[in-house]
Write a structure and sequence with these properties.
The structure holds 2 protein chains of 2 kinds. Chain A has 2 domains: 4-237, Rossmann fold; 241-353, Rossmann fold. Chain A has 13 helices and 14 strands. Chain A has helices at residues 9-19, 35-47, 57-69, 81-96, 122-127, 144-161, 171-175, 188-196, 220-237, 257-272, 290-294, 315-323, 342-353; strands spanning 4-8, 24-27, 50-53, 74-78, 100-106, 137-139, 164-170, 177-181, 241-244, 251-254, 277-282, 284-286, 303-308, 329-333. Chain A has a 7-stranded mixed β-sheet, sandwiched between helices. In chain A, β13 (303-308), α12 (315-323) and β14 (329-333) form a beta-alpha-beta unit. The longest helix of chain A is centred in the middle third of the chain and has 18 residues, at 144-161. Chain B is α/β, with parallel strands linked by helices. In chain B, α1 crosses α7, α2 (73-83) packs parallel to α4 and α3 (95-101) packs across α4 (103-112). The longest helix of chain B is centred in the C-terminal third of the chain and has 19 residues, at 182-200. The chains are: A alpha/beta, B alpha/beta. The interface between A and B is medium-sized, with 39 and 30 residues.
Amino acid sequence: MQEKKFMKGCEAVAEAAVRAGCRFYAGYPITPQNDVPEYFSRRMPQVGGVFLQGESEVASANMLLAAAASGTRAMTTSSSCGISLMSEAISWLAMHHLPAVIGNFQRGGPGIGSIQPSQQDYTQATKASGNGGFQMIVLAPSTLQEAADMTYEAFDLADKYSFPVLVLLDGFTGTMMEPVAMPEAKSDEEVAAIKASKTWVPRGREKDHTLHNITDGAPLQERNIREAEMYEAWKTTEVKWEEYLTEDAELIISGYGIAARIAKSVVNDLRKAGYKVGLIRPIRVNPFPAQAFEKLNYEKLRGILCTELSIPAQYAVDVRNVVHGRTPVGTALSSGGEIITADAIYEAAVEMYGKL
Amino acid sequence: MEIVYKKPSNLSETQPNNFCPGCMHSTAWKLIGEVLDEMELTEKCVWIAGVGCVANAHRYIELDQFNQPHGRACAGASAFKRCNPDTFLFTYQGDGDLAAIGLGETISAANRGDNFTVIFINNGIYGMTGGQMAPTTLIGSKTTTTPFGRTAGEHGYPIHMCELLNTLQAPSYIARCTTADVPNVRKTKNCIRKAFQNQLDGKGFSFVEIISNCPTNWGMTPLESLDYIHDVVLKEFELGEFRCR
């Protein structure tokens, strides 16, 4: 069995990125993700990578943009209000069709909010991480093992589509510690080969005046139509979700990330008490796994309880849009840095379930 | 027959530069193009475009290039050069881009001493957007957002980028020149060459400010605009090499 190491969430993300071949990181200090830049500042010199502490989130994300243009596997992380500042460069990554990985360790909002965990950036993450209506694949880990695995995977997805990919975490996942088995590190040769494969990188024109240009020269509408087709295709090729005890369930609890992790323990408790309850957890929140909800037998379903660290609910809006009135959709919520308790989810589920 | 003069190999034979008649952006590009050819850098050069009038010339300039958002060229250049240190790299930015929205990125890159060159075109106005006040606009100048003239009380004084950057330890080369007359055009070319050489020598951040014109938004003929540079602008912005390591 692969050896597990007891790690902090931020460090697991950073180490997984290095192992995926990330050789550029820029970031700006913001709680609760400061362990990420600190880890990279120690680690990058060991692998010949570049660490840059930007003068702001705006600058850090623009450094990421240029690092992506240089062909280097590149990452930045921040938290909520910092991600808002990065939205300029994230939109430009989409415009230039450049691969990069962004991590958001969500904290309470709006504004500076709080430094405690939240899931209040769901709509921003899945629908509008910048101007122009682009979308990203959004990975939503609920354990540190997933945080490491998904960060690693995010670099492959970014290169596959030559597009930015978002890892949507929270302050809880970033700061807790768990045993993690690290994905295998790419060799220096593999990292160099990935960089060399990016033929569009501006490295100086060829003698025959051939220019390398990261910008697609096609008319903007044409490009946007092509990208819309890509987002549409993701809905079948890139959806991922977990189903837990849904087969005979009469009530579904649903959420992502840390809220789903709490919800899973509640499902176990409710089962012990005799309630037929299951869990649907999107592993990726964009594309949204509508299929998970289409599969449900609505005739025997008493309802779906969405739980998330956001008031007003954001994730539940997507669930409601898919369920389309076929069963009641309720919510169990917390916000502003408050973490929803298992008891609160339990009580909301029992109330929604009705008589045993 | 011996060729004594030719157009730089990196400026298009077929595409227009689209700059307004009399605008000295085109002079700046001719000088950059000549220096790149003379130093044999054309094939290994990448430049990062700021946002502004330079967008008029993207097809005219036959060099590898990419764009950063408005004001962010220096942040991007820092990252790109560190990732690909063998690439010869310069940014080309106007006064709104470099000294207003990108002031933080400019100063921070200079302060880190990142090893690339900045060509800074200072014509004291936002050209592309139609003549609004720039941070370098002179006191008394009427622009579309200072219709009664810039006043120190309301808008502050014009910002002097060379002097400001000269307070930092890291930059290796800082110069202000102008393309307003032939002797100064030759001096400008020399400054560009020195800045580029500093980058090749790994000496760190190099910065060339070129006092330029904007006949369209200044409401002047090209010749009047050159006189205005001599008679008025250069009284505010002193020419010279502020630092040469």
